[in-house]
Amino acid sequence: KLTSLALQPAITPELVRGRVRLKCSYSRPPPEPPVHFRVLWSRLSSPGKREQIHQETTLQPFSYVEMDGASLRLGDTVFCTVTAFRRGTPEQQSLPEDSKGFYAGIKFLPESLEIAEDGKEHVLTVLSTIPIACPGQEDSCKMTLQLSTEDLGKGSQVPGPPDISLSACQVDLLPGPCSGSSCAAATVTVTAVTDFAHDGNRVSRVSARPAAPRDVLWRAYTPRDVKVTVRDLPTGNCYSFTDPHIITFDGWRYDSHKIGTFLLCRSASRAFEVHVRQWDCGGHRSATACNCGVAAR
Length: 297
Prior knowledge:
- One of its GO terms (cellular component) is extracellular region.
- By secondary structure, the chain is an all-beta fold.
- It contains one helix and 24 strands.
- It has three domains: 10-104, Sandwich (Immunoglobulin-like), CATH 2.60.40.10; 106-231, Immunoglobulins (Immunoglobulin-like, Sandwich), CATH 2.60.40; 239-296, no CATH class.
- A hairpin with a 3-residue loop joins strand 19 and strand 20.
C-alpha cells in the first residue's frame, strides 16, 4: 500500500547554464515494484489560493521547473506537491504531500524591526534566495540593490522625514554557493534618528530596488519592504540663559555670574562638547555676566 510514504518534498534553487531553476526533491520508496511520481508545481497567486504552473509524471526522485519570468517570477512563493502511484494500479496512490513554500527573491532579515531613539545600530541582512547570475559577465558579476527609507507616519499624522538612517545607500549581492535559505547576502545597519521631538512611536520602511539589472528576471521585480517601528524616547535638555541661569540635564538649577570661557557640557561616551563665553553685562552697578558666544563640537 502507498498510503503513507513520507516523501518529504523540498524545494532548492540551482543555477544551470546561467538560468535559475527550482528543484523539488523527495524520498524514493523501496525499489520494487517501480513507483511513478506525479509532481504538481504551483505558486501563491493570492493569500490562501494557489495557481498551477506545471505538472509532470516521472520515475525520478526529483523534478525541475525554470524561473522564466512569465509563469514563474521573482516574488512568487512556490510549492511542489508529490503523489506516488504504481502504473497499472493508479488507485494505489499515496496521499499528496506538500513542500514548504519557497519564496523566490530578496528577503530582509529580520522581516521587521522595533528600535529606539538611543543611537544603537541594528544589523539588517539583505539576502537573495536564488543564485545571482550574469551570463557572459562572470568576472564582474553582482546584483546591486538601491536602498531607501520612507516615513509612514503614525495614525492620521502626515508623514515627515524618515525616522531612521542607513549605513549605506546600496549593497552588492555577489554570486556564490547557496547555503540554507541564502544564495547571496549583504548587511546594512539601521539607526533611529534622535530628532529631539516628542512625536510618539513612528513607522518607517526600508525598500530595496535592483539597480539597472541586465537579467530580464530582475527587471520587473520589486522586493518586499521591511517595516521599522521607532520607539520615541524622551530627550534630555540643558539650558543657560540671561545672566546666566543654568539648568542641567537632571534638573539642577544655579547661577553663574563669572566672566570667561567655560565648558558647559561634555559627553563621557562620544566626541561632543559645548563651550560658552560669558562677558560683563552689568556695568558698574552689579557683577553680572551674560552669554555672548557658544561653540559646539
